[in-house]
């Protein structure tokens, strides 16, 4: 790959993104378990991660991971109960978790069914307890999975919202005016402190925002995914040709 500060891998299509992401998930899991005895992953919602989760729960990839040593977190959650069709937890549970040999104690869902401010405080405390954090410390999640919306948002860090300015809290309730609802989201300092970050981006509607995020001026208030660029060295962007078509930066090309 030509030298660039961003690691962008272009693969053939959405199924190729699922496969490349599954391979990266397995690699990260093995490395973390060998190094630290466990693997902590922050899951995301959306259609692209759903394809990844299905692969991980399938016969090819499931045997490659020591699932009893994997702990599941969420980068964000909608303000809905866990059985709601909009729940990020429900999607991940149906596509993957229910098919894995994991104990309930390994799954840390965000309680979207309660007041979002309380849910954010509760989830922040769960992170502090699990990662044994002292005052001012950040968790070092082994792998954070992220997507990017057509408006440049990631997790529930939306353009023009207050959560973009947060530097102390680990998790916050974020009012998203375009949907007239609160979302619970990990903050940018938590996401960028991960050992590895994987962005899954596909589709024509992502071409312009992806170019703006990676090649445009730094305006994270308008393009929140740019908040993650400070962790560029440990971030891999897996994109399909339709999402990558406007990029001029050096890219890895994979069939």
Give the overall shape: globular
Low-confidence stretches: none
Q: What is CATH's topology name?
A: Rossmann fold
Helicity range: 25-40%
How many individual domains?
1
CATH class: Alpha Beta
Give the strand tally. 10
What is the mean predicted local confidence, pLDDT? 95
Give the quaternary arrangement of the chains.
Answer: single chain
End-to-end separation in angstroms reads 15 Å
What is the C-alpha radius of gyration, as a whole number of Å? 17 Å
Measured by DSSP, the beta-strand proportion falls in 15-25%
Number of helices: 7
CATH architectural type = 3-Layer(aba) Sandwich
Order of helices and strands: EHEHEEHHEEEHEHEHE
Strand order of the largest sheet: 3-2-5-8-9-1-10
């Amino acid at each position: 790959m030509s030298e660039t500060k961003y690691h962008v891998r272009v693969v053939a299509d959405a199924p190729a993104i699922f496969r490349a992401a599954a391979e990266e998930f397995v690699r990260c899991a093995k490395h973390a378990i060998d190094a630290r005895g466990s693997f902590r992953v922050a899951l995301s919602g959306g259609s692209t991660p759903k394809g990844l989760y299905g692969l991980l729960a399938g016969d090819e990839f499931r045997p490659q991971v020591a699932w009893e040593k994997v702990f599941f977190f969420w980068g964000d959650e909608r303000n809905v109960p866990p059985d709601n069709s909009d729940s990020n937890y429900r999607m991940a549970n149906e596509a993957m978790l229910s098919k894995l040999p994991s104990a309930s104690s390994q799954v840390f869902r965000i309680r979207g069914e309660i007041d979002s401010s309380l849910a954010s405080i509760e989830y922040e405390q769960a992170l502090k307890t699990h990662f044994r954090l002292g005052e001012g410390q950040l968790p070092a999640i082994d792998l954070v999975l992220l997507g990017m919306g057509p408006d440049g948002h990631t997790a529930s860090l939306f353009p023009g919202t207050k959560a973009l300015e947060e530097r102390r809290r680990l998790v916050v309730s974020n009012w998203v005016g375009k949907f007239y609802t609160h979302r619970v989201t990990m903050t940018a300092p938590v996401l960028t402190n991960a050992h590895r970050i994987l962005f899954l981006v596909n589709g024509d509607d992502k071409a312009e925002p992806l170019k703006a995020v990676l090649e445009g001026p730094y305006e994270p208030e308008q393009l929140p995914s740019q908040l993650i660029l400070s962790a560029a060295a440990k971030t891999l962007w897996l994109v399909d040709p339709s999402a990558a078509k406007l990029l001029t930066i050096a890219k890895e090309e994979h069939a």
